[in-house]
């Protein structure tokens, strides 16, 4: 194997694309891995449109730091990922909120989400 | 396998904040010697070792070295707080296969003394780490948010779990937190990960324990009344909270069905419930997934002091991980309490007429679920 699933994902992030994998039965797979869960079948890469809804939400409160959002987002293609929602107060991030993916300026860029109507 | 093995000895190590310099394996040794003394067996009788702790990746090697045991069967399965229910299940398989005769299951942790960050080395989860979750509490907070969203569970209902645990702890001289605690106190405590306050979260203590597992036949020849393993079930569904298929449905539904099915009893038959309470949401989820109430009704189930002393359901009778002791992997102490309740040794907190108990362990972030159904001699 010349390129790990992590390296492929990171390269896609650098191109500001949220990559995920698809199993032979069409189901979406995330996070990136070597084989389809349950069957071991090979996976194909695909790129998400970056739209989804908040599935679960919390606010992390570390001593001496500003409260920060941590969410699980269900992407419309059928996979789930941990992320955060920017663009509104962390305690106002509600389950069901429609969100759109963005990338940070970090190296490598990190996927985060903003409310869809702010996108 | 129903009733083939029994827990013959059970003990805690020192708990809370232990003497400076004591190590995790010291606490394992201390608990092991107490558990062996409890049933009247010797170190030299032990030929199977089972142990886990976050601080020692090869825990049975440390335990064997310190005790001077060269086991013919060893199992250091590490699946978090549920490890010890799995160890008991594995011990009975090993005993049934004549791979060992006297199985010692041990745990020790000094996480309070050394600090949580050095006691529990968190593996890096590359697809979660950029978002800086405060693990494990963030995982449980996410599940709680989902339970509240789907079923209307309230923060007051969550607080009921903490308040009931405290009331049980007030009956247990060994409990770490025994001061008064009200629903309001829980609600007004500092938020850690919304909607969980610090009082929705388990203690951070030192501690450990041990149990001795032998054939039921041999247990009857020993010092204490045997506590029979009537059923056991194991299941796990994920490692990371972002990979949990459904945040309000745990693999306890599978482990519980296996354990109850084997034991031939129903949740309604159980007299004492020891359900891992790392956070106030966990007993609510396990009451549902083990079948004590329907999915989504766990919040209502715990209302009105129902799980507190004097309530209808005896849950976490030692005060649990929330108020008695939580060294990081509480499961072994849940087994110890179930054993003591079934032997009628619990003094002020003793549940009258306790014949059947469930000890349920949880590991990771709702990842691993292991269930034991235990019973006294009348339940065979």
List keywords for this structure.
heterodimer; A: 119 residues; OB fold (Dihydrolipoamide Acetyltransferase, E2P); five-stranded antiparallel beta sheet; three-stranded antiparallel beta sheet; 1 helix; 8% helix; globular; B: 380 residues; ten-stranded mixed beta sheet; two-stranded antiparallel sheet; 12 strands
The dominant shape of chain B is globular
Separation of termini of chain B? 12 Å
Give me the number of helical elements of chain A: 1
Give the overall average pLDDT of chain A.
97
CATH class of chain A: Mainly Beta
Q: Would you count the extended β strands of chain B for me? A: 12
**In percent terms, what proportion of residues of chain B is strand?**
15-25%
Query: What portion of residues of chain A is helical?
Result: under 10%
Structural class of chain A: mainly beta
- Could you spell the SSE succession of chain A in H and E letters? HEEEEEEEE
